[in-house]
TrEMBL record:
Stored Gene3D superfamilies: MetI-like (1.10.3720.10)
Species classification: Bacteria, Pseudomonadati, Spirochaetota, Spirochaetia, Spirochaetales
InterPro entries membership: ABC_transporter_permease, MetI-like, MetI-like_sf
Signal peptide start-end: none
GO biological process: transmembrane transport
SUPFAM superfamilies the UniProt entry points to: MetI-like
Record's protein name: Sugar ABC transporter permease
Stretches assigned to the ABC transmembrane type-1 domain: 67-270
Pfam families per UniProt: BPD_transp_1
The keyword Transmembrane is assigned to this record: yes
Cell compartment(s), UniProt: Cell membrane
PROSITE patterns: ABC_TM1
Amino acid sequence: MEKTLRKYFPLFALPALICFALAFLIPFVWGFVLSFCEFQIITEPTFVGIDNYVRAFTVDNYFTQAFWFTLGFTIVTVISINILAFTLALVLTRNVPGTNAFRTIFFMPNLIGGIVLGWIWQVVLNGVLANFEQTLLSNSKFGFWGLVILMNWQNVGYMMVIYIAAIQNIPTDMLEAAAIDGANSWTTLFKIKIPAVMPSITICLFLTLTNGFKLYDQNLALTNGAPNHQTEMLALNIFNTFYSRTGFEGVGQAKAVMFTILVAAIALVQLAATRSREVEN
């Protein structure tokens, strides 16, 4: 039976490989080629070398600004989302009354679309800021923290579910042995629980890291880059470059290639770092 499965494995894998090639591999390779071309129609490109990459940094000053804004946003959200999600998971695995209801409530925002979330929080936050005669669009700091709040509200519940599953899988004999040895709650947390859930921490860090860098729809709905592109993140900047500026299609494509490579590189470094901790523990 096992030999038969191995024999026909390529056949079973073929549909998935075809879908991967059509949906990702071929478009990525063609996009990489187009990043070295000037075009308005993708079937009529003109090769211009690395001009698009140079123009991305010299002609469009907003690209560098969007990178630093996105980097700061991602750092803050990765830390805040994972700390809040892990804390909630710890609380909701201690037989708290109404645990299932709380889990459902915290998870529900993840089911709402990004555009709708952005609109909801724009109404809420502008209502709050109106008391101070301010709006999300009047100051980039308001836009930044508005996006942070939105991202936390949407993703904390999802990451919490992953952490809950990991905590519930910690062997009870380990926790009982720690209690017998006199370990307090902090020692148990840092010496047993956190090392035991490192695979889940790896997953949650990866998801929040990549989600932070590639955020688009919430950014579009909440601030749309205002004021003066100061809250424009990388994905929105690339979209605006490609579709809103005639003659910049190649520049937008070059930005997209750099963006893909950047996110992939950072994600791989993060996976390597956290997986090494899994091995140690």
